Amino acid sequence: AILGIVLAVGAVSGANATIIYNTPGTTNVTGPVLDNVIVDSSATTVNVGTGGIIRGVNDPSLGIFNAAARTRHGTLHVTGNGRIIAARGQQAINMTGSPSTVRLSDNALVVGDVVNEFTAPGINLHLEDSARVNGNVRYAGYMSMQDNARINGSIINPDNGSYTLDMFGGIVTGQVVMGG
Question: Which of 11-15, 124-128, 173-177 has the lowest mean pLDDT?
């Protein structure tokens, strides 16, 4: 079951709604969600597990926060064969608040860019097992990559931050750029 608050977005937007998860506890997504989602409580965990898919809706009115999944605070786990797929013109995951943790594990797939523009304590990105990102990781903060995780793109440090990368395996098919 999907718990949270549904906030309607204006008629000008391409999205019908944005689902906001802000109730303390864990929510499991095991089926399709055809809207953007926001994790907005440090006490909230959203697990996108086997059979779960978040397919974003492009909403240019959100500016730099236009993402299929956004963590303002809290934890987003994509596990099993869970998927997050960005719409054209949209980021897949945007990490904007602290604390925020995103963990991609098992055979998780993210299609689109993973973005965190500013360095802040408590922002963590973990790629492990055979998780894949088909896009760039534009990132400031702590990032770990291990096992057979794969980024089919580049790791790029934005102008506004710095990052720490602990790599214990994994493949980056593009460049690893240090500095903005």
Answer: 11-15
